[in-house]
Amino acid sequence: MTIRTIAAGDITAAVRDLCITVNHRMGDDMLAALRRARATEESETGRHVLERLLENAEVARSQWYPICQDTGQAVVFLDLGQDLHVAGGDLEAAIQEGVRQGYREGYLRPSVVEQPLRRINTGDNTPAIVYTRVVPGDRVALGFLAKGAGCDNMSRLAMLTPSDGREGAVRFVVQAVSDAGPNPSPPLIVGVGMGGTFEQAALLSKRALLRAVGTPSADPELAALERELLDKINALGIGPAGFGGRVTALAVHVESRATHIASLPVAVNLDCHSHRAGSVVL
Amino acid sequence: MTSRPALQVTVPFDTRRAESLRAGDAVLLSGTIYTARDAAHERLAGLITRRLPLPVDLRDQVVYYCGPTPPRPGRPIGSAGPTTASRMDAYTPLILDATGLRAMIGKGKRSAEVRAAMMRQRAVYFGAVEGTAALLGACVRDAAVVAFPDLGPEAIHRLVVERFPVVVVNDVHGGDVYEEGRARYRRAPA
Known about the structure:
The complex is a heterodimer of chains A (about 280) and B (about 190).
Chain A: E1 4-7, H1 8-24, H2 28-40, H3 44-63, E2 73-81, E3 84-87, H4 91-105, E4 129-135, E5 140-147, H5 149-152, E6 156-160, H6 165-180, E7 188-196, H7 198-207, H8 220-233, E8 249-259, E9 264-271, E10 277-281
Parallel strand pairs in A: 1-3, 2-4, 7-8
Antiparallel strand pairs in A: 2-5, 5-10, 6-9, 7-9
Helix pairs in contact in A: 1-4, 2-3, 6-8
Chain B: E1 7-11, H1 15-20, E2 26-35, H2 38-49, E3 62-64, H3 92-99, E4 103-106, H4 112-121, E5 124-127, H5 133-137, E6 140-147, E7 156-170, H6 177-185
């Protein structure tokens, strides 16, 4: 077996490019979801909002304006192959440098304060949040979310218990979206993390946002749950930008893991109508 | 609200103009507005509480809850959509009562206290669509930092805007487009 070597600088360059690309080029999955929504929305105002969102995506792409002024906190999902050696620098530092370069060179907004109570802007959007997994193989996979705070702020977690069951989980997710109302900038991508422990449920709900928009879970039972949640959320009437309408969410993605015999953790992480996600494999 | 042509409104504007606006009206704003978000609100409220002068006279002005992206060379500003207004709710009644601020632009719901203060002071809350930040940035003709430059994107910027699209969310008569719109399309109790 051979160990592949990758330069830390290559990881920096890849992260830099991801920061700039996802903030200016809306994904084809998201564009398709917005077009489907425009075709089905009954509210004239709602259709008008969706039309403007698509127009915005085009102006962002062609004229180099960020899709949204909240260019997000950079959340990096790093899958590191165990047969890989990173040479020429510290891996974590390489990622942070990529975010620093991406946000500065891409004219993206520095949106991070160094401490939640003192609140002094770090000026370059670092530190990014990095979640690392070691996986088989000799590749580096980078998943990237430019995570807006308006929607992240409306996210929720509940430590439900077994008797709450499926019905309790559905009620909690729908209630979270209902209470959020217009604040998280609908139509939303709703990430749901179910199972594990307190912190794993939260992380699953964030990771669920990386899935291509509208791709159902591979598990038929979870796919059915996703459809039910989407129907119930879209019955709330919140609509595009919260002005009233049928399309409050574009997709619900549920991720699930084994959990304790006493637990049913459910986390809901919301992403706005400017959902920005990307990935690259090196 | 889109079946009617948008109203053209010059900013700043007075009480009478504010009273003429109704929840649901689509409006195109042209003139001068000021950005202020979380950190600037904390400072403005602190100055008011200590009875110190404000860096900007807000009487009849429009405050925009926005922290824009840095401009590319040759542009006045980058993308400039609204942020969530409810984070400003803790400061808004104080600012409305102390300054005569006439309107705010943001996204999302306001508290009952803010809506009451708006009716009392004859102020309007406009909603803009955050996901149209690039289009909104392109409506900005000129931008300058006028207070709190150390706050970076949270500094108070004076913006000259042209045909800047907003919707009246809360009018001075108690109308609320979020509640009315949602009630029209709701299918199940929640």
